[in-house]
Design brief:
Pfam families: Fringe
Largest sheet: 5 strands, mixed
Family: Belongs to the glycosyltransferase 31 family. Beta3-Gal-T subfamily.
CATH class of the largest domain: Alpha Beta
Structural class: alpha+beta
Number of domains: 2
CATH architecture of the largest domain: Alpha-Beta Complex
GO molecular function: glycoprotein-N-acetylgalactosamine 3-beta-galactosyltransferase activity; nucleotide binding
Distance between the termini: 24 Å
Main location: membrane
Strand order of the largest sheet: 1-13-9-12-7
Number of helices: 17
Number of strands: 23
Membrane topology: Single-pass type II membrane protein
Shape: globular
CATH topology of the largest domain: Spore Coat Polysaccharide Biosynthesis Protein SpsA, Chain A
Radius of gyration: 24 Å
Amino acid sequence: MQQGPGPIDHSAAAAAAAAAAAAAFPYGYAGGAVRGYEGGFLTLMTMAWHLRVGPLFGPSSNDSQGSFRSKPPALIDEWEVALNHKPRRQEAVSDISMAIPGNPPMPNGSCYSPIAPSLACTARRCFSYGLYSDLAETIAGHSVSDVLANDAVSPATQAAYPAEFAFYTQLHAAGSVAAAFSPHELAQWAAVGNSHRGRQANPAWRLDRWKFLPMAAVALRASPPAARWFLFVEADTFVALRTLLAYLELFDPRLPLYIGRQMHNRDTLFAYGGAGFIVSRPALEALVDVVARDRAGYEDYVRRHWAGDADLTHALADTGTSLLQAWPNFESEAPRDEEWGIVKYGRVLWCYYAMTYHHIAPEELGELFAFEERWGREHNGSLLRHGDVFREFILPQLVLERDDWDNLSEAGVGVSSGGVPLDSFEKCRAVCERVEQCLRFSFAGQSCKVSFGVKLGHQTDAAAPVRVRSGWIMDRMEAFMQQMDAKYGSLANKKSGPKAL
């Protein structure tokens, strides 16, 4: 692999990369250099993607982000200079190599229920991939390797803390999830709720944190020499591939870079694995090297901390590689659960390019891939912003009312029923309509909930003892979009979309 000229000052390189990317993606990219050590995490699925495609896609001068009128024009010009006046890249980026470890077991005995639909949507874009878990087997015709095999965790650590590896030991003694654990055990583990320390009552979840550092080494070792970028992402995460390609063009792969959706756990900041995060080859090589030189020390660190993605962040920090914050390009919510008017970290979700969404149901994954492809065809190759996803993908699913549906409304603070018993869906709607800011509501039993934000939500069980019925104030949905466009720029009236660079 081609190396940069001489030694690199890691902290300076990270700061320079953040500044360069912020100039190039002033309103479509989120960036900032910080250091993170430990934190919270759900199960990590890892993709090491080396991308073999044609020309990359980014905004043309006509797209120019001029729709974002609240942004200083100078920043918009810098975007145009960065993306429209840079040399055209003639070579393919690289080959795609995808590596995905499995989930903790599901009630049906499978660790891999999200993998088959993920591969159905992504494998056609990939030339090679690998699946990694804690048991070697074949799933839907795909070979799965045991990432903890060959003493990936030292025998000394396994012997000293047998309870940490009891699940792994029992699984291998039986040879399969179904043979090792009863349906009752699997159902119990699947029902374990999340807490500020994850799902500690699920032994498969506790084991999962031990896979992160071995996974980094496996992904690096298995990658083609031309691999420059590694995208770590869970199997239930949607990745907008064209956006990812345009995004990666902003960065120098010779630098040690670590980019992801920032997440806080008390005083700690790290990249949340579910939203996906990117590690450059130099950063990953440095991580694998530093762990190999102090294996016992890092295994002790993993034992004392509960989140695998934070353990990986800690090792990267030890190499001098800090996190570039990238919310909301990397997003931890699914579109159905998204709060579409959200503003945090000083950034407006609506305006940024949508690169990942997490917690995507298998049937939704195919819908999102089809939507992304259709959008590109119908908008001259334009990249999706979150506002586009709402307008074209979510809004058509919002209706006056839906039975057996929870739109995740919350009890409205300060919203009065006017002394009228809320014993019907219609009365609940009337409460929402009386409050100008109310956009959605739901009714279940004698409970009326209203909310001032926009969400789609999800289907509920029609056979449940208490059925949920949801509604939206549709004329206010249109007003919501108009307000967002007036404040942050019209996404509907672009003259043209991004063209090939």
